[in-house]
Each structure stands twice: as C-alpha cells, then as structure tokens.
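Incident log, support desk, overnight shift.

02:14 A customer reports that sequence design results differ from what the structure should imply. Their input is reproduced verbatim below. On-call engineer (initials T.W.) acknowledged and began investigating.
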C-alpha cells in the first residue's frame, strides 16, 4: 500500500519537542527529494553532488519545515494570530499554515521588494499584508516589537521552534545517503537555515548515526553580505530578494556552525547567481528561484579560485521553487525577454521552423 509522508512532526516526533496528543498543524511538508546532479559534480570536480530540492515543499520553500513546528506551538499556546517579517517565503508559509490552524496571519514585507509569486501566496491565504517602507531588517524589528506588546505570535526564525522544524532537513539527508556528506552548502540570509542544519547534524552525531559533521558553507549575495563584511549592512541590495538581509538574526549560531564544522562563508555577484540559476535549470533539470542558486554559485566560485576544499560527497540545498519568481527564466543572458516564436497551425509549418526533415 502506498505510504503518504506525514509531515516532519509526525515523521520525526521522537526527535522534536512534541508528544502524541499535541496539536499538529501540517500541510505534509518535508520528505523532499535529494536529486543527483552529475553535471554540477563535473563542474565542481567532486565525486558526487545531490541537490536537496526544498522547492518541493507545500508552499514551495524550506520555510514550511519550521512553520509546521512554530504554528503548532502557537496553536498549543492558544494564539489567535501569528506575525512574520519576510522577504517573501516566510510570509507565504506563515499565511498557509495560519489558514490550516484557523488563525489570522499578519505579514510585514519590504515595499516593492518581494516577488509576485510569493506576494500572491500571502494574498491567496488571506494574510493581512503590510508593505513596510524599509527593508527586511526593519520588518523584523517591527514584528518583534509587535509580538512583545500585542496579541500576535511571532513565527520568524528567532522563534526557536522554527529551527527545530528546519533541522529535519539534515535528518532526511542522512536517512537517504546513510551518512553525512563531506560538505553541505546553502544560501545564507537571516541565517536560520544554516543554524538549523548544524543543529540537525549535531544531533545525528550525538545519536551515533553519523561519525562527523559536514563542512557547512553559507553563501551570500555580494550586495547583501554582512557575514563577509563582519558587521551589518545598512542598505542591502541584490536581485536575490529572498536573501536581501543586512542584519541577520541568527548571527552567533551561524558563526558557530561555520567554526564547529570547519566550514565557510562567501559571497557571489548577482551575475554569478543568475548564471548558476540557469545552469541548474538547463543542466540539472531543477528550477529554483535565483536566491536558491546562491549555494551552488558559491561552490563554483571557490572551484574557479582553486580553493574548494578537497571533498568527495557534496549536498547543496536549493531553498525555493523557480515558480516563486519566474521572470528571471524568461530573460536571456543579456537580459532580453525570451518570446517563443508564433507559428501557423500546421505540422509542415512547425517542422519547417524546427528544421525537421520528413522521414521516408
Ligand atoms: C529561497 O522569507 O528570510 O539564511 O523572510 O527565502 O535561513 O534566512 C527567506 C530566506 C534562502 C535564506 N533561500 O535562509 C524570508 C526569508 C530562500 C529564502 C533564504 C531565504 P536563512
């Protein structure tokens, strides 16, 4: 009989702060595919690369893992409303899980700086959406302040329940590979995700399932790279709007993840991000939003500089689906709009344009 994946809380309840009988708000998140990417392995000249395709979550990003735990805990606390600051994906997830929980969601997003796909999700799930004249960091400051003084429950990743849910991605990697990879890379924004992977892998070591931690690599966009600068960036800029974050909340946890795993941080240009965005869709068959290509773009940069650590097995988390922000795929490498040709409705006309010769 076919087995349906039950969402991360039920699948990993013994390793999460939940017990049978607790309220569980789930949309079946997690259980995302770990996809072999030989083209990327060849590019990086390593033994193998797997893409952890988090775009396959119910709202199309990894945020669902932490939202099932955060909203379930909010429900247990009797919350009627949740609030989140977001560059887009957190708001989409908060809105969807709030609907499932029978709660109102309030989302604060930077005005004009979130993709249409993500905004449409928050609207579809009837969030109260406010476009803040400011950046993500302003939105997070407001969300924290509101949650301290008003009856709204904060579901950003400064809420530790979020990281608990997100750590399950590391469990899934180990369940599939049977061991930890040598190196695991991902985009780095507010730094919740790298902190959650660190937590998850550490628990796997403590439980004796793996022997060593993978080197965790977090990659930022150059215009929005506080971890490279060593201090917050006042006016972060990048086309990768999901990671347009200047003052990451999980600063210390991310530094610890890097130190403890002998990993690294780096930053790549928007051009390098878009190049890898195209490579992943054209050579690996995996369509992600531009921000999600940042981890792989960073490894390629290290490879080109000759400073990629000597590793055999690599996992790269691609955090969100390409349909979140599809406009980028419709431009060629010079930024011109790609328009498929129009053709008359005859087989001969189509064959003519395709340059096909009729078979005898
Ligand atoms: C696709 O939605 O911060 O380093 O408000 O949407 O854990 O912040 C999104 C972040 C990477 C960075 N990839 O992860 C938000 C938000 C995608 C993202 C990140 C985000 P973190």
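02:41 Re-run completed on a clean worker. Output:
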């Amino acid at each position: 009989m076919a087995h349906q994946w039950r969402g991360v809380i039920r699948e990993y309840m013994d390793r999460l702060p939940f017990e049978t009988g607790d309220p569980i708000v789930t949309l079946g998140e997690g259980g995302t595919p770990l996809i072999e990417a030989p083209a990327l392995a060849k590019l990086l000249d390593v033994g193998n690369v797997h893409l952890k395709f988090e775009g396959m979550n119910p709202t199309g990003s990894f945020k669902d893992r932490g939202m099932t735990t955060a909203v379930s805990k909010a429900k247990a606390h009797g919350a009627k409303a949740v609030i989140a600051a977001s560059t887009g994906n957190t708001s989409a997830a908060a809105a969807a899980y709030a609907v499932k929980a029978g709660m109102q969601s309030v989302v604060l997003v930077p005005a004009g700086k979130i993709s249409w796909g993500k905004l449409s999700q928050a609207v579809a799930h009837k969030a109260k959406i406010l476009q803040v004249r400011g950046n993500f960091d302003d939105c997070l400051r407001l969300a924290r302040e509101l949650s301290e003084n008003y009856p709204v429950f904060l579901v950003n990743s400064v809420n530790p329940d979020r990281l608990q849910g997100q750590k399950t991605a590391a469990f899934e990697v180990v369940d599939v590979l049977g061991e930890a990879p040598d190196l695991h890379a991902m985009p780095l924004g507010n730094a919740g995700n790298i902190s959650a992977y660190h937590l998850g892998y550490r628990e796997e070591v403590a439980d004796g399932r793996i022997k060593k931690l993978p080197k965790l690599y977090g990659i930022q966009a150059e215009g929005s790279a506080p971890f490279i600068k060593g201090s917050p960036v006042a006016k972060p800029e990048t086309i990768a709007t999901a990671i347009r974050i200047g003052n990451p909340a999980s600063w210390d946890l991310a530094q610890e993840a890097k130190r403890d795993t002998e990993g690294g941080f780096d930053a790549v240009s928007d051009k390098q991000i878009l190049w890898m965005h195209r490579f992943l869709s054209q050579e690996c068959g995996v369509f992600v939003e531009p921000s999600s290509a940042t981890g792989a773009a960073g490894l390629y940069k290290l490879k080109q500089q000759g400073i990629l650590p000597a590793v055999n097995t690599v996992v790269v988390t691609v955090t969100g689906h390409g349909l979140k922000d599809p406009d980028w795929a419709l431009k060629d490498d010079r930024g011109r709009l790609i328009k498929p040709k129009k053709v008359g409705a005859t087989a001969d006309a189509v064959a003519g344009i395709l340059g096909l010769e009729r078979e005898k």
